[in-house]
Amino acid sequence: MLSRIPVTRLSLGASAAARRLYSVNARAGPSKAYLKATHTVTAPSPKTASFLARGEQYLLPVYARPDFVLEKGKGSWVWDVDGNKYLDFTAGIAVNSLGHSDEGVSKVLAEQSSKILHASNVYHNEWAGKLAELIVTLTQKEGGLGYAPGSAATQGTASTPKVFFANTGTEANEGALKVARKVAKERWASAVPGRKEGDYYNECTKTGIVCFENAFHGRSMGALSVTPNPKYQVPFAPLIPGVQVGQVNEIDAVNSLVDEDTCAVIIEPVQGEGGIHPVKVEFLRALRKRCDEVGAVLIFDEIQCGLFRSGTLWTHSSYPVDCHPDIVTMAKPLANGYPIGAVLLRPSIAETMTAGTHGTTFGGSPLACAVGYHVLNRLSQPEMKSQIAETSTYLRERLSHLPKWFPQILESEIRGRGLILGLGFRDEGLPGKVVGLARERGVFLLTAGKDAIRFVPSLNVTKEEVDYAVDVLESSLSVV
Ligand SMILES: Cc1ncc(COP(=O)(O)O)c(C=O)c1O
Asked: Into how many domains does the chain fold?
Protein backbone atom coordinates (compact mmCIF):
# COMPACT_ATOMS: atom_id res chain seq x y z
CA MET A 1 0.00 0.00 0.00
CA LEU A 2 1.42 3.35 -0.98
CA SER A 3 -1.29 5.55 0.46
CA ARG A 4 -0.41 8.59 2.54
CA ILE A 5 -2.55 10.17 5.21
CA PRO A 6 -3.17 13.91 4.90
CA VAL A 7 -0.94 15.80 7.32
CA THR A 8 -3.39 18.56 8.12
CA ARG A 9 -6.73 18.14 9.87
CA LEU A 10 -9.87 20.26 10.06
CA SER A 11 -13.27 18.67 10.32
CA LEU A 12 -16.30 20.36 8.77
CA GLY A 13 -17.81 20.52 12.22
CA ALA A 14 -14.86 22.48 13.64
CA SER A 15 -15.69 25.61 15.56
CA ALA A 16 -15.09 29.05 14.14
CA ALA A 17 -12.23 29.49 16.63
CA ALA A 18 -10.54 26.32 15.43
CA ARG A 19 -11.01 27.49 11.88
CA ARG A 20 -9.30 30.78 12.66
CA LEU A 21 -6.47 28.92 14.35
CA TYR A 22 -6.01 27.00 11.15
CA SER A 23 -6.03 30.12 8.98
CA VAL A 24 -3.97 29.55 5.87
CA ASN A 25 -2.75 33.13 6.12
CA ALA A 26 -0.47 31.95 8.90
CA ARG A 27 1.43 29.74 6.49
CA ALA A 28 4.91 30.94 5.81
CA GLY A 29 5.41 29.02 2.60
CA PRO A 30 4.30 26.09 0.50
CA SER A 31 4.02 22.59 1.96
CA LYS A 32 7.11 20.48 1.38
CA ALA A 33 5.50 17.36 2.88
CA TYR A 34 5.30 15.54 -0.45
CA LEU A 35 8.54 16.40 -2.22
CA LYS A 36 9.28 12.70 -2.60
CA ALA A 37 7.02 10.69 -4.89
CA THR A 38 4.95 8.06 -3.08
CA HIS A 39 2.95 6.56 -5.93
CA THR A 40 5.41 6.20 -8.81
CA VAL A 41 4.70 3.19 -11.01
CA THR A 42 8.11 2.00 -12.20
CA ALA A 43 7.10 -1.50 -13.24
CA PRO A 44 3.41 -2.51 -13.11
CA SER A 45 2.64 -5.54 -10.92
CA PRO A 46 1.86 -8.78 -12.81
CA LYS A 47 -1.84 -8.26 -12.06
CA THR A 48 -1.81 -4.69 -13.41
CA ALA A 49 0.36 -5.68 -16.36
CA SER A 50 -2.15 -8.32 -17.45
CA PHE A 51 -5.05 -5.79 -17.40
CA LEU A 52 -2.95 -3.25 -19.31
CA ALA A 53 -1.94 -5.84 -21.91
CA ARG A 54 -5.57 -6.83 -22.51
CA GLY A 55 -6.58 -3.18 -22.90
CA GLU A 56 -3.73 -2.55 -25.29
CA GLN A 57 -4.78 -5.52 -27.39
CA TYR A 58 -8.50 -4.80 -27.58
CA LEU A 59 -9.29 -1.15 -26.79
CA LEU A 60 -9.16 1.64 -29.35
CA PRO A 61 -6.13 3.61 -28.19
CA VAL A 62 -7.75 7.05 -28.00
CA TYR A 63 -6.74 7.74 -24.40
CA ALA A 64 -3.28 8.28 -22.89
CA ARG A 65 -3.52 6.81 -19.39
CA PRO A 66 -1.12 6.10 -16.50
CA ASP A 67 -0.03 2.52 -15.82
CA PHE A 68 -2.45 1.51 -13.08
CA VAL A 69 -5.95 0.03 -13.14
CA LEU A 70 -8.70 1.35 -10.88
CA GLU A 71 -10.78 -1.16 -9.00
CA LYS A 72 -12.97 0.69 -6.51
CA GLY A 73 -13.76 4.05 -4.97
CA LYS A 74 -15.31 5.52 -1.84
CA GLY A 75 -16.11 9.20 -1.41
CA SER A 76 -13.24 11.17 -2.96
CA TRP A 77 -10.84 8.21 -2.85
CA VAL A 78 -10.08 5.46 -5.36
CA TRP A 79 -7.97 2.30 -5.15
CA ASP A 80 -6.15 0.46 -7.90
CA VAL A 81 -6.02 -3.32 -8.25
CA ASP A 82 -2.78 -3.40 -6.24
CA GLY A 83 -4.38 -1.58 -3.29
CA ASN A 84 -2.77 1.82 -3.90
CA LYS A 85 -5.00 4.65 -2.75
CA TYR A 86 -5.43 7.98 -4.59
CA LEU A 87 -7.38 11.14 -3.84
CA ASP A 88 -9.62 11.73 -6.86
CA PHE A 89 -9.71 15.53 -6.93
CA THR A 90 -11.28 15.38 -10.41
CA ALA A 91 -14.56 13.59 -9.54
CA GLY A 92 -14.34 11.69 -12.81
CA ILE A 93 -14.16 15.02 -14.72
CA ALA A 94 -16.79 16.88 -12.69
CA VAL A 95 -19.18 13.93 -12.54
CA ASN A 96 -19.16 12.24 -9.12
CA SER A 97 -20.56 15.20 -7.19
CA LEU A 98 -21.56 12.93 -4.29
CA GLY A 99 -18.31 10.96 -4.51
CA HIS A 100 -17.66 7.35 -5.44
CA SER A 101 -19.82 4.43 -4.27
CA ASP A 102 -22.36 6.66 -2.58
CA GLU A 103 -24.68 4.43 -0.54
CA GLY A 104 -27.87 6.29 -1.48
CA VAL A 105 -27.02 6.14 -5.19
CA SER A 106 -26.12 2.43 -4.97
CA LYS A 107 -29.42 1.70 -3.21
CA VAL A 108 -31.49 3.45 -5.88
CA LEU A 109 -29.50 1.68 -8.63
CA ALA A 110 -30.05 -1.71 -7.01
CA GLU A 111 -33.74 -1.20 -6.26
CA GLN A 112 -34.69 0.37 -9.57
CA SER A 113 -32.66 -2.07 -11.68
CA SER A 114 -34.45 -4.95 -10.04
CA LYS A 115 -37.85 -3.34 -10.83
CA ILE A 116 -37.45 -1.99 -14.38
CA LEU A 117 -34.27 -0.72 -15.95
CA HIS A 118 -35.20 0.14 -19.51
CA ALA A 119 -38.35 -0.02 -21.59
CA SER A 120 -37.64 2.56 -24.35
CA ASN A 121 -39.50 5.78 -25.05
CA VAL A 122 -42.29 3.87 -26.76
CA TYR A 123 -43.78 3.71 -23.24
CA HIS A 124 -44.11 6.04 -20.25
CA ASN A 125 -42.19 5.43 -17.05
CA GLU A 126 -42.73 7.00 -13.63
CA TRP A 127 -39.25 8.52 -13.19
CA ALA A 128 -38.70 10.63 -16.31
CA GLY A 129 -41.61 12.93 -15.46
CA LYS A 130 -40.56 13.16 -11.81
CA LEU A 131 -36.99 14.14 -12.66
CA ALA A 132 -38.17 16.62 -15.32
CA GLU A 133 -40.52 18.20 -12.77
CA LEU A 134 -37.67 18.48 -10.26
CA ILE A 135 -35.36 20.13 -12.82
CA VAL A 136 -38.07 22.62 -13.81
CA THR A 137 -39.32 23.47 -10.31
CA LEU A 138 -35.79 23.82 -8.95
CA THR A 139 -34.97 26.17 -11.85
CA GLN A 140 -38.01 28.28 -10.96
CA LYS A 141 -37.06 28.30 -7.28
CA GLU A 142 -33.31 28.86 -7.66
CA GLY A 143 -33.42 30.96 -10.83
CA GLY A 144 -32.50 30.31 -14.45
CA LEU A 145 -34.02 30.00 -17.95
CA GLY A 146 -35.77 33.37 -17.56
CA TYR A 147 -36.92 32.83 -13.95
CA ALA A 148 -35.63 35.03 -11.13
CA PRO A 149 -34.83 33.13 -7.91
CA GLY A 150 -37.99 32.46 -5.92
CA SER A 151 -40.33 32.31 -8.93
CA ALA A 152 -43.53 30.35 -8.41
CA ALA A 153 -43.91 27.04 -10.23
CA THR A 154 -45.91 27.45 -13.45
CA GLN A 155 -49.22 25.73 -13.93
CA GLY A 156 -50.41 24.43 -17.28
CA THR A 157 -48.59 22.57 -20.02
CA ALA A 158 -48.11 25.49 -22.43
CA SER A 159 -46.46 27.74 -19.86
CA THR A 160 -44.13 25.17 -18.30
CA PRO A 161 -40.52 24.59 -19.41
CA LYS A 162 -39.87 21.15 -20.86
CA VAL A 163 -37.07 18.60 -20.53
CA PHE A 164 -35.69 16.13 -23.06
CA PHE A 165 -33.55 13.33 -21.64
CA ALA A 166 -30.47 12.08 -23.49
CA ASN A 167 -27.49 9.97 -22.39
CA THR A 168 -24.47 12.27 -22.51
CA GLY A 169 -23.54 15.91 -22.63
CA THR A 170 -22.71 15.67 -26.30
CA GLU A 171 -26.13 14.25 -27.08
CA ALA A 172 -27.80 16.98 -25.02
CA ASN A 173 -25.96 19.62 -27.08
CA GLU A 174 -26.88 17.87 -30.33
CA GLY A 175 -30.52 17.98 -29.25
CA ALA A 176 -30.28 21.66 -28.34
CA LEU A 177 -28.72 22.57 -31.71
CA LYS A 178 -31.38 20.60 -33.58
CA VAL A 179 -34.17 22.35 -31.67
CA ALA A 180 -32.57 25.72 -32.43
CA ARG A 181 -32.45 24.90 -36.16
CA LYS A 182 -36.15 24.03 -36.18
CA VAL A 183 -37.20 27.07 -34.15
CA ALA A 184 -35.18 29.36 -36.41
CA LYS A 185 -36.60 27.82 -39.58
CA GLU A 186 -40.12 28.37 -38.29
CA ARG A 187 -39.32 31.96 -37.31
CA TRP A 188 -37.79 32.51 -40.76
CA ALA A 189 -40.79 30.99 -42.51
CA SER A 190 -43.32 32.92 -40.48
CA ALA A 191 -41.62 36.24 -41.30
CA VAL A 192 -43.09 36.17 -44.83
CA PRO A 193 -46.89 36.13 -45.05
CA GLY A 194 -48.26 33.07 -46.80
CA ARG A 195 -45.06 31.08 -46.50
CA LYS A 196 -45.75 27.70 -44.95
CA GLU A 197 -43.00 26.59 -42.60
CA GLY A 198 -42.62 22.93 -43.61
CA ASP A 199 -42.51 23.68 -47.37
CA TYR A 200 -39.58 26.04 -47.01
CA TYR A 201 -37.29 24.13 -44.69
CA ASN A 202 -34.72 23.51 -47.42
CA GLU A 203 -34.58 27.11 -48.61
CA CYS A 204 -34.08 28.60 -45.15
CA THR A 205 -30.79 30.45 -44.70
CA LYS A 206 -31.22 31.00 -40.97
CA THR A 207 -29.00 28.03 -40.10
CA GLY A 208 -25.73 29.56 -38.84
CA ILE A 209 -24.37 28.76 -35.38
CA VAL A 210 -22.16 30.93 -33.21
CA CYS A 211 -19.74 29.41 -30.68
CA PHE A 212 -16.65 30.67 -28.89
CA GLU A 213 -12.94 30.12 -28.74
CA ASN A 214 -11.86 27.68 -25.99
CA ALA A 215 -15.33 26.13 -25.97
CA PHE A 216 -15.89 22.42 -25.53
CA HIS A 217 -19.31 21.03 -26.41
CA GLY A 218 -18.55 17.41 -27.36
CA ARG A 219 -17.16 15.24 -30.14
CA SER A 220 -20.07 14.19 -32.35
CA MET A 221 -20.22 15.99 -35.71
CA GLY A 222 -22.58 18.75 -34.54
CA ALA A 223 -21.04 19.26 -31.09
CA LEU A 224 -17.52 19.01 -32.56
CA SER A 225 -18.40 21.67 -35.14
CA VAL A 226 -18.92 24.13 -32.26
CA THR A 227 -15.78 22.98 -30.39
CA PRO A 228 -13.19 25.10 -32.23
CA ASN A 229 -10.06 23.22 -31.21
CA PRO A 230 -7.98 22.22 -34.27
CA LYS A 231 -6.64 19.15 -32.44
CA TYR A 232 -10.16 17.77 -32.17
CA GLN A 233 -11.63 19.13 -35.41
CA VAL A 234 -9.02 18.92 -38.17
CA PRO A 235 -8.81 15.12 -38.63
CA PHE A 236 -12.57 14.93 -39.02
CA ALA A 237 -13.33 17.87 -41.32
CA PRO A 238 -15.52 18.79 -43.13
CA LEU A 239 -17.77 19.61 -40.21
CA ILE A 240 -21.19 21.21 -40.37
CA PRO A 241 -21.08 24.50 -42.29
CA GLY A 242 -22.04 27.99 -41.13
CA VAL A 243 -20.28 28.04 -37.75
CA GLN A 244 -18.84 31.40 -36.63
CA VAL A 245 -16.33 31.46 -33.80
CA GLY A 246 -16.29 34.51 -31.51
CA GLN A 247 -14.18 35.61 -28.55
CA VAL A 248 -15.76 35.35 -25.12
CA ASN A 249 -16.39 38.72 -23.44
CA GLU A 250 -15.84 40.77 -26.64
CA ILE A 251 -19.06 42.72 -26.44
CA ASP A 252 -18.30 45.02 -29.40
CA ALA A 253 -18.14 42.06 -31.77
CA VAL A 254 -21.53 40.60 -30.82
CA ASN A 255 -23.63 42.47 -33.39
CA SER A 256 -21.55 41.37 -36.35
CA LEU A 257 -21.01 37.86 -35.00
CA VAL A 258 -24.72 37.14 -34.48
CA ASP A 259 -26.76 38.12 -37.52
CA GLU A 260 -30.05 37.43 -39.31
CA ASP A 261 -28.69 34.09 -40.54
CA THR A 262 -27.85 32.88 -37.04
CA CYS A 263 -30.13 30.19 -35.64
CA ALA A 264 -28.20 29.43 -32.43
CA VAL A 265 -25.57 30.80 -30.09
CA ILE A 266 -24.01 28.22 -27.78
CA ILE A 267 -21.80 29.14 -24.82
CA GLU A 268 -20.56 27.71 -21.50
CA PRO A 269 -21.10 30.32 -18.74
CA VAL A 270 -17.82 29.03 -17.27
CA GLN A 271 -15.65 27.41 -19.90
CA GLY A 272 -14.39 24.15 -18.42
CA GLU A 273 -12.18 22.10 -20.74
CA GLY A 274 -10.98 25.33 -22.38
CA GLY A 275 -9.24 26.62 -19.23
CA ILE A 276 -11.82 27.70 -16.58
CA HIS A 277 -12.84 31.02 -18.10
CA PRO A 278 -15.99 32.58 -16.58
CA VAL A 279 -18.08 34.59 -19.04
CA LYS A 280 -18.98 38.13 -17.93
CA VAL A 281 -22.62 38.86 -17.13
CA GLU A 282 -22.57 41.88 -19.48
CA PHE A 283 -21.43 39.66 -22.32
CA LEU A 284 -24.26 37.18 -21.72
CA ARG A 285 -26.66 40.13 -21.63
CA ALA A 286 -25.34 41.39 -24.97
CA LEU A 287 -25.81 37.90 -26.46
CA ARG A 288 -29.35 37.68 -25.09
CA LYS A 289 -30.24 41.08 -26.54
CA ARG A 290 -28.77 40.28 -29.95
CA CYS A 291 -30.42 36.83 -30.08
CA ASP A 292 -33.77 38.50 -29.42
CA GLU A 293 -33.12 41.08 -32.17
CA VAL A 294 -32.34 38.48 -34.84
CA GLY A 295 -34.55 35.62 -33.61
CA ALA A 296 -31.69 33.26 -32.66
CA VAL A 297 -31.86 30.70 -29.86
CA LEU A 298 -29.44 31.18 -26.93
CA ILE A 299 -28.07 27.91 -25.51
CA PHE A 300 -26.10 27.70 -22.25
CA ASP A 301 -24.03 24.54 -21.99
CA GLU A 302 -23.96 24.00 -18.21
CA ILE A 303 -22.77 20.41 -18.57
CA GLN A 304 -19.61 21.02 -16.56
CA CYS A 305 -20.36 24.20 -14.62
CA GLY A 306 -24.04 23.58 -13.78
CA LEU A 307 -25.94 21.52 -11.20
CA PHE A 308 -24.40 23.36 -8.23
CA ARG A 309 -20.74 23.02 -9.27
CA SER A 310 -20.42 26.78 -9.52
CA GLY A 311 -22.30 27.21 -6.23
CA THR A 312 -25.81 27.76 -7.58
CA LEU A 313 -28.14 25.40 -9.46
CA TRP A 314 -27.07 26.95 -12.76
CA THR A 315 -24.12 29.25 -13.13
CA HIS A 316 -26.62 31.78 -14.46
CA SER A 317 -29.17 31.23 -11.64
CA SER A 318 -28.08 34.38 -9.80
CA TYR A 319 -27.68 36.51 -12.94
CA PRO A 320 -30.40 38.98 -13.97
CA VAL A 321 -33.06 37.39 -16.19
CA ASP A 322 -32.10 39.62 -19.12
CA CYS A 323 -29.03 37.44 -19.63
CA HIS A 324 -30.71 34.05 -19.32
CA PRO A 325 -30.77 31.48 -22.15
CA ASP A 326 -33.58 29.79 -24.06
CA ILE A 327 -32.09 26.35 -23.56
CA VAL A 328 -29.82 24.84 -20.86
CA THR A 329 -27.94 21.59 -21.42
CA MET A 330 -26.75 19.42 -18.52
CA ALA A 331 -25.22 15.98 -18.00
CA LYS A 332 -22.12 15.01 -16.00
CA PRO A 333 -23.21 14.98 -12.30
CA LEU A 334 -26.94 14.55 -12.82
CA ALA A 335 -26.86 10.83 -11.94
CA ASN A 336 -23.43 10.90 -10.22
CA GLY A 337 -21.77 8.81 -12.93
CA TYR A 338 -24.67 6.83 -14.32
CA PRO A 339 -24.92 8.15 -17.91
CA ILE A 340 -27.57 10.82 -18.43
CA GLY A 341 -27.88 14.11 -20.28
CA ALA A 342 -30.76 16.55 -20.52
CA VAL A 343 -32.00 19.58 -22.43
CA LEU A 344 -34.12 22.14 -20.55
CA LEU A 345 -36.17 24.41 -22.84
CA ARG A 346 -38.27 27.52 -22.35
CA PRO A 347 -41.95 26.80 -23.14
CA SER A 348 -41.87 29.02 -26.25
CA ILE A 349 -38.92 27.04 -27.63
CA ALA A 350 -40.23 23.63 -26.60
CA GLU A 351 -43.49 24.08 -28.50
CA THR A 352 -41.75 23.53 -31.83
CA MET A 353 -40.96 19.91 -30.98
CA THR A 354 -43.74 17.45 -31.65
CA ALA A 355 -43.95 13.65 -31.67
CA GLY A 356 -41.33 12.15 -33.97
CA THR A 357 -39.13 15.24 -34.36
CA HIS A 358 -36.36 13.93 -32.06
CA GLY A 359 -35.70 10.87 -29.93
CA THR A 360 -33.37 8.33 -28.36
CA THR A 361 -33.52 4.68 -27.34
CA PHE A 362 -31.89 4.92 -23.92
CA GLY A 363 -32.50 8.54 -22.83
CA GLY A 364 -34.99 9.00 -19.99
CA SER A 365 -34.82 5.39 -18.81
CA PRO A 366 -36.42 4.60 -15.45
CA LEU A 367 -33.00 3.73 -14.03
CA ALA A 368 -31.15 6.88 -15.16
CA CYS A 369 -34.04 9.11 -14.07
CA ALA A 370 -34.53 7.43 -10.68
CA VAL A 371 -30.84 7.94 -9.93
CA GLY A 372 -30.94 11.49 -11.32
CA TYR A 373 -33.92 12.31 -9.10
CA HIS A 374 -32.09 11.04 -6.03
CA VAL A 375 -28.87 12.89 -6.87
CA LEU A 376 -30.46 16.23 -7.79
CA ASN A 377 -32.65 16.12 -4.73
CA ARG A 378 -29.59 15.71 -2.51
CA LEU A 379 -27.47 18.28 -4.35
CA SER A 380 -30.22 20.88 -3.88
CA GLN A 381 -30.46 20.53 -0.09
CA PRO A 382 -29.46 23.72 1.78
CA GLU A 383 -26.73 21.90 3.76
CA MET A 384 -25.08 20.78 0.51
CA LYS A 385 -25.16 24.32 -0.87
CA SER A 386 -23.52 25.71 2.28
CA GLN A 387 -20.92 22.96 2.24
CA ILE A 388 -20.05 23.81 -1.38
CA ALA A 389 -19.76 27.52 -0.50
CA GLU A 390 -17.58 26.79 2.53
CA THR A 391 -15.30 24.35 0.71
CA SER A 392 -15.02 26.65 -2.27
CA THR A 393 -13.96 29.57 -0.06
CA TYR A 394 -11.44 27.34 1.68
CA LEU A 395 -9.95 25.88 -1.51
CA ARG A 396 -9.78 29.30 -3.14
CA GLU A 397 -8.09 30.75 -0.08
CA ARG A 398 -5.47 28.02 -0.08
CA LEU A 399 -4.90 28.40 -3.82
CA SER A 400 -4.65 32.17 -3.51
CA HIS A 401 -1.25 31.81 -1.80
CA LEU A 402 0.32 29.88 -4.65
CA PRO A 403 0.87 32.74 -7.12
CA LYS A 404 2.78 34.62 -4.40
CA TRP A 405 4.96 31.62 -3.66
CA PHE A 406 5.50 30.62 -7.30
CA PRO A 407 5.36 33.92 -9.21
CA GLN A 408 7.60 32.71 -12.05
CA ILE A 409 5.35 29.74 -12.72
CA LEU A 410 1.80 30.88 -11.97
CA GLU A 411 -0.52 33.65 -13.09
CA SER A 412 -1.74 35.89 -10.30
CA GLU A 413 -5.51 35.26 -10.54
CA ILE A 414 -7.38 32.12 -9.43
CA ARG A 415 -9.95 31.37 -12.14
CA GLY A 416 -13.55 30.18 -11.78
CA ARG A 417 -16.16 30.03 -9.03
CA GLY A 418 -17.67 27.51 -6.62
CA LEU A 419 -15.91 24.18 -7.06
CA ILE A 420 -14.87 24.76 -10.66
CA LEU A 421 -11.57 26.55 -10.11
CA GLY A 422 -8.43 26.90 -12.19
CA LEU A 423 -4.80 27.86 -11.70
CA GLY A 424 -3.21 29.52 -14.74
CA PHE A 425 0.42 28.76 -15.66
CA ARG A 426 2.83 31.06 -17.48
CA ASP A 427 4.41 28.12 -19.33
CA GLU A 428 2.03 25.89 -21.32
CA GLY A 429 4.26 22.86 -20.82
CA LEU A 430 3.89 22.87 -17.06
CA PRO A 431 0.25 22.01 -16.16
CA GLY A 432 0.56 18.48 -17.56
CA LYS A 433 3.86 18.00 -15.78
CA VAL A 434 2.47 19.14 -12.42
CA VAL A 435 -0.61 16.91 -12.85
CA GLY A 436 1.81 13.99 -13.37
CA LEU A 437 3.85 14.92 -10.29
CA ALA A 438 0.67 15.18 -8.17
CA ARG A 439 -0.46 11.74 -9.37
CA GLU A 440 2.92 10.34 -8.32
CA ARG A 441 2.08 11.73 -4.88
CA GLY A 442 -1.39 10.17 -4.77
CA VAL A 443 -3.62 13.00 -6.04
CA PHE A 444 -5.58 13.13 -9.30
CA LEU A 445 -5.82 16.59 -10.87
CA LEU A 446 -6.83 17.69 -14.39
CA THR A 447 -5.42 20.15 -16.85
CA ALA A 448 -7.74 22.61 -18.62
CA GLY A 449 -6.99 24.29 -21.94
CA LYS A 450 -3.33 24.77 -22.71
CA ASP A 451 -2.29 26.63 -19.61
CA ALA A 452 -4.25 25.63 -16.52
CA ILE A 453 -4.83 23.05 -13.82
CA ARG A 454 -8.49 22.47 -13.06
CA PHE A 455 -10.03 21.72 -9.66
CA VAL A 456 -13.42 19.99 -9.94
CA PRO A 457 -13.56 17.70 -6.88
CA SER A 458 -16.67 15.99 -5.55
CA LEU A 459 -19.03 18.60 -4.12
CA ASN A 460 -18.92 16.84 -0.73
CA VAL A 461 -15.10 16.79 -0.60
CA THR A 462 -13.84 17.49 2.94
CA LYS A 463 -11.42 20.15 4.07
CA GLU A 464 -8.90 17.46 5.04
CA GLU A 465 -9.03 16.25 1.46
CA VAL A 466 -8.62 19.79 0.15
CA ASP A 467 -5.59 20.13 2.40
CA TYR A 468 -4.03 16.94 1.12
CA ALA A 469 -4.63 17.96 -2.51
CA VAL A 470 -3.18 21.44 -2.04
CA ASP A 471 -0.23 20.21 0.04
CA VAL A 472 0.62 17.78 -2.76
CA LEU A 473 0.15 20.51 -5.35
CA GLU A 474 2.46 22.84 -3.43
CA SER A 475 5.11 20.14 -3.12
CA SER A 476 4.76 19.35 -6.84
CA LEU A 477 5.19 23.03 -7.73
CA SER A 478 8.32 23.11 -5.57
CA VAL A 479 9.65 20.07 -7.44
CA VAL A 480 9.03 21.82 -10.77
C1 LIG B 1 -19.09 21.91 -21.21
C2 LIG B 1 -19.16 20.53 -21.79
N3 LIG B 1 -20.04 20.28 -22.76
C4 LIG B 1 -20.14 19.06 -23.30
C5 LIG B 1 -19.35 18.02 -22.90
C6 LIG B 1 -19.49 16.66 -23.50
O7 LIG B 1 -20.11 15.82 -22.58
P8 LIG B 1 -20.01 14.23 -22.74
O9 LIG B 1 -18.57 13.87 -22.61
O10 LIG B 1 -20.86 13.70 -21.62
O11 LIG B 1 -20.57 13.88 -24.06
C12 LIG B 1 -18.40 18.25 -21.90
C13 LIG B 1 -17.49 17.18 -21.46
O14 LIG B 1 -16.46 17.38 -20.90
C15 LIG B 1 -18.31 19.53 -21.32
O16 LIG B 1 -17.43 19.81 -20.36
From this structure: 2
